[in-house]
Structure formats: C-alpha cells, structure tokens
Amino acid sequence: MGKEQALMDTSVEVASRQSLPVISFAERDEATLARQLDQAFSDIGFCYFSDIGIDKALVEGVFAASRRFHVQPRAAKDAIAMNRFHRGYMAPKTSIIETSSVAKVTKPNDSESFMLMHEVAPDDPRYGRPLDGPNLWPDLPGFREAVVAYEKAMHGFSMRLLRPLALALDLPRDWFVPYFEQPTTFLRLLHYPPHAKNAAEDAFGSAPHTDYGFITILCQDSSGGLEVRRSDGTWLPAPPIAGTWVVNVADMLSRWTNGRWQSTPHRVKNLSGGDRYSCPYFFDMSMDSTVEVLPTCQGPGRSAKWPAVRYGDYLLERLDKNYAYRKQPEPA
User: Which biological pathway (predicted)?
Assistant: First the structure.
C-alpha cells in the first residue's frame, strides 16, 4: 500500500508528539480500516480502538473480577501461584524485563497479576507441551464466568481484525487465518499499587519493554500511567479514553512486516496515588507458527531484516529470561 500513504483518511489523526490516533470500527469497511491501521502502525505502532462491539457490561465484569481477586489475602492468591504452563497468580516483584531493548532493567516490576491463557484439555494432543495446559481458578463465585466471557469476546474481535490487517499489508484477506486456528492467547488481570514516593527513578510498575507476539489489546482503568516511546527516545502518555482500548504491534507482527510496523517499547508508572487496574489481551499465532518476512514487505532495497523463527521458541526464550518462577527447578 506504499503509494496510497498520501491518500489515507484524514479521519485518523496522525500520531503526533501529543497523542496517539483513534481508530473507530463503527460502520467502517475493511479497506478503510486497512488504510487507517497501516498509517497508525507504520507511524508509531500504537493507537486506540473504539466501537469494537464489546459490551460495556463485559468490561465492567472483568474489572470487577480483577478487583475482587486482588483484594484477597496473599495466601488465597498464592494458592493458585503460577504453574509451569504460565497460568495463575504472579506475585509482585517476581518479573524483571531482562529482554528490554531500550533499558538496562535491574528492578522487578511492582505489579501483580492473574494470568489466563488458551485452555488446553487433557485429551488435546497439545496437552503437556510448554504453555499448553490447564488454567488455574480462584475460589470466587462468578469470577471464572466474568473472565471467560470477556476473553471470549476479545477472541472474537481479534479474529475479525485479522482481515483488515491482512489487507493493510497487501495480502489476501484470509492470509493470517491459518496461523490462528489454535492461537496462543493471554488475558492478564494486572494490579499496580501506588508508586512509592521514595521509589528510585528506574522503578516501574512495568519496565520499558516490547510485547512478544502478534498484537496486544489493552483495556485500562482511569488511573493513567502508560507511556509509549517515541522514535526520538522521549515518552508519550497514552491516557485512558472512555470506550477505547489501547492497541499495539508486538514483536512477531513487526518481524512479519520487516519493521514496517513497529513493535514499540512502552512502560507503566502508577503515579495516580491509588491502585491501577488494567486488562491486556495478547492475541498471538499458534506456538508452531513460523514467522518470516512477508513477500509484500521486502524487495529491491528492502531485504529481510530477520531470519525465519518459530514463535514458540521466541516466546519461551523471553519467558524463561523474564520470570522468576521459570528459573526455579521443577518439583521432584
């Protein structure tokens, strides 16, 4: 779509030094969405989505569930501590973003979370492979139902999103679909305590990092604190906007596009004075997917910047480096 850049809809505000663009899905055809997505992801790799068809009650339900979970005593949360399949409770200060491409991170993230992934039943041939296993659930009435309902809605929207993304890259509209027949998905219910007044400058709720897979769709509360790194190294706030989700390109999608779409570093400091909650949904290809630069994103003067990689290998390398529980020996 290179020659169409100058014709892109003026309804999408170009990501500037002041704000990220907002893309509405209300009554937009796929071709229009494709142009808008290409503009936003080429410019900064981040944008807001609005009007994506997710019921407000589902959003309120998953945030209420997250708050109910995180206000529990620590012992109740530890009862479903993160298992070897990367599901369950992750305690504060147990992850250090050692793979950050923009900072030397030495302090653990000051946040806690509940992690849900794609469900893999014991009779599934994948069961038992890395990251293919059971989810863990707290003993909270209604919690599972609220979380699963939101995850199901996000999965449905993400599958619909694949088509305008393919069109944006001059691919057949269903090109991405086979890679997501068994997607790798994460729904993370995050809680950030207030940033300590005496905290070091390099202390973060989430240290500067990029996401690993395909695309991230984040719903955040009204606290603020998310920042996106501009190309000049300065940081742009991504404040909450009612009825929107913050969306960003992750590493595998950037590799697929030969860097045309940016996997942009971002970070969180909760300076609101109160608790911050957010619910990022990570929608990634199957673990066995091979990602290599798209033919539409290379050619004369545009050679491939990266070799082909199996997504599962890339993902596991980063999880093994960044999460303390994965560095502990397996129980005998």
Answer: Alkene biosynthesis; ethylene biosynthesis via 2-oxoglutarate
Tens-place pLDDT, residues 13-23: 444 457 999 99
pLDDT at 3 over 70: no
| DSSP count for the chain of H helices, then E strands | 6, 14
How many domains does the structure of the chain reveal? 1
CA 206 to chain centroid, in Å, comes to: 13
pLDDT digits (tens, 9 = 90+) for 34-50: 999 999 999 999 999 99
Asked, for residue 2, whether it belongs to a domain, the answer is: no
What confidence tier does 197 reach under pLDDT thresholds 50, 70, 90?
confident
Burial of 37 (0-12, 13-18, 19+ CB in 10 A): buried
Q: What is the CATH number of the domain that holds 204?
A: 2.60.120.330
The three-point CA angle 65-68-69 to 5° equals 85
User: What's the confidence (pLDDT) of residue 109?
Assistant: 80
pLDDT digits (tens, 9 = 90+) for 268-299: 999 999 999 999 999 999 999 999 999 999 98
**Which pLDDT band holds residue 6 (cuts at 50, 70, 90)?**
very low
- For residue 10, being part of any structural domain is answered with no
Q: What range does the domain containing 240 cover?
A: 22-327
Query: Is 1 a member of any domain?
Result: no
Task: Give me the helices (H) in the chain, please.
Answer: 30-43, 56-70, 74-78, 143-168, 251-256, 311-322
Other Cβ atoms within 10 Å of 243 Cβ, number = 14
CA 172 to chain centre: 25
Q: Judge whether 8 lies within some domain.
A: no
Residue 57's nearest CA partner among 157, 138, 145 is 145
